């Protein structure tokens, strides 16, 4: 609260400023200002009136229930203080950014007044702007999660369900073929990169030979390379957002076998980076998270399909499965927890249907055309 005197056109006036905050929700406040009051006594009377009005407005809002913005702030505080929370600080930050972008209009609306029509409107807008099913589903689940928490904590009164309850999303049925490189394309990538002495050659080669994720490659130290037992211990991953090292995405350590090719690459790297802690050479582009754009540009330059960095990991799994390596071993080496990802790679490699049609044996034998076909397909270079 403040009463200030000021001059305008050589005449003295008073200004009254009132700022009232809610005791239930510190983020909720009402501000009022009046100018050109001719006396201090008048200013004092107006100050009392404005305070009364502000308190009435605060009370009116509180009676209607906490605003959605207040619920979100309280949930954020709960997540920070709750040691039993399963959400990481990074996940909470991502969720808050998603809420700010898509439910920003709700922030000054009492949470109990947000209904399914409001939720449907936002989801429709997300769809119109081309947002993926995954992003829309995440937004729906986050709103549902926080609203449900608000109901349980009795911060939201007068309703008994969330605006997302009963609101289903339909995944588009199209089944896109994941991007992948054939073995010959992988060889071309690494051949051209080595030929040009490309600074990312060793990183790309290491990714394909180990299936390690980007953050795991960045964090890999020489202390984790066991030449004696021929394994690379993977137990850390670098997060570019938080600029910190944490456990792997799966949350557990694993061993990746050192193949003969990987061993040769490690010996070469030992001469280059052996005096540092880290196996792979660092660069400012990698530190800035530009690994995908660099790889895509190089692929276009050498005229092979342009892929993102994570596709190198998919190449690792797909071609091992195609070579007959068991799904269990591939999952163990690459740190996959769920088999649904392996199902995709099995489809890509063709291992899921290999040999399925061999028993048909329906073509006629002992005819000239047939003999020519047999001769054509039996000849190998």
Structural notes for this entry:
The protein folds into three domains: 2-63; 68-152, DNA polymerase, domain 1 (Orthogonal Bundle); 183-349, Orthogonal Bundle (hpI Integrase, Chain A), CATH 1.10.443.10. Helix content is 49%, strand content 11%. 24% of the residues are buried. The N and C termini lie far apart (91 Å). The protein has 381 residues and is mostly helical. The protein has helices spanning 40-63, 68-81, 89-102, 116-128, 133-152, 183-195, 201-210, 214-219, 260-273, 284-287, 291-301, 311-322, 327-334, 339-349, 368-378; strands spanning 2-8, 11-21, 29-37, 225-226, 231-234, 237-239, 244-246, 254-257. The strands form three sheets. A three-stranded antiparallel beta sheet has the order 1-2-3, covered by helices on one side. A three-stranded antiparallel beta sheet has the order 4-5-8.
Strand order of the largest sheet: 1-2-3
* CATH top level class name of the largest domain: Mainly Alpha
Order of helices and strands: EEEHHHHHHHHEEEEEHHHHHHH
Ends distance: 91 Å
CATH 2nd-level architecture of the largest domain: Orthogonal Bundle
Residue share in helix: 40-55%
Silhouette: elongated
**Would you tell me the overall average pLDDT?**
88
Going by helix content, strand content and strand pairing, the class is mainly alpha
User: The CATH topology of the largest domain, please?
Assistant: hpI Integrase, Chain A
Number-wise, the strands total 8
Q: Quick one: biggest sheet?
A: 3 strands, antiparallel
Total count of helical runs of at least 4 residues: 15
> How many structural domains in the coordinates?
3
């Amino acid at each position: 609260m403040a009463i200030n005197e000021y001059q305008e056109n050589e005449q003295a006036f008073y200004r009254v400023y009132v700022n009232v905050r809610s005791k239930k929700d510190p983020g909720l406040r009402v501000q009022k200002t009046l100018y050109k009051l001719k006396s201090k006594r008048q200013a004092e009377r107006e100050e009392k009136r404005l305070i009364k009005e502000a308190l009435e407005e605060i009370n009116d809002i509180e009676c209607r229930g906490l605003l959605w913005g207040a619920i979100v702030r309280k949930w954020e505080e709960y997540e920070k203080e709750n040691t039993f929370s399963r959400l990481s600080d990074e996940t909470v930050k991502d969720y808050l950014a998603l809420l700010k972008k898509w439910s920003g209009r709700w922030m000054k609306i009492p949470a109990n007044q947000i209904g399914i029509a409001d939720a449907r409107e936002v989801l429709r807008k997300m769809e119109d702007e081309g947002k993926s099913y995954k992003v829309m589903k995440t937004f729906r689940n986050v709103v549902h999660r926080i609203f449900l928490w608000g109901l349980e904590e009795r911060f939201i009164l007068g309703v008994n369900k969330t605006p997302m309850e009963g609101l289903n999303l339909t995944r588009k049925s199209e089944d896109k073929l994941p991007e992948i490189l054939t073995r010959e394309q992988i060889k071309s990538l690494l051949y051209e990169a080595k030929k040009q002495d490309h600074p990312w050659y060793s990183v790309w080669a290491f990714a394909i030979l180990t299936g390690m994720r980007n953050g795991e490659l960045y964090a890999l130290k020489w202390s984790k390379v066991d030449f004696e037992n021929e394994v690379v211990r993977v137990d850390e991953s670098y997060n570019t957002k938080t600029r910190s090292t944490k456990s792997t995405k799966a949350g557990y350590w694993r061993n990746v076998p050192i193949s003969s090719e990987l061993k040769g690459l490690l010996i070469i790297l030992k001469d280059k980076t052996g005096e540092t802690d880290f196996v792979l050479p660092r660069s400012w582009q990698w530190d800035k998270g530009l690994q995908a754009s660099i790889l895509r540009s190089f692929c276009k330059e050498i005229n092979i399909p342009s892929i993102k960095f994570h596709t190198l990991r998919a190449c690792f799994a797909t071609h091992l499965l195609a070579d007959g390596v068991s799904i269990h071993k591939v999952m163990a080496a690459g740190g996959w927890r769920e088999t649904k990802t392996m199902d995709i790679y099995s489809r890509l490699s063709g291992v899921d249907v290999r040999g399925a049609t061999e028993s048909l044996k329906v073509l006629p034998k002992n005819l000239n055309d047939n003999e020519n076909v047999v001769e054509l397909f039996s000849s190998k270079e």
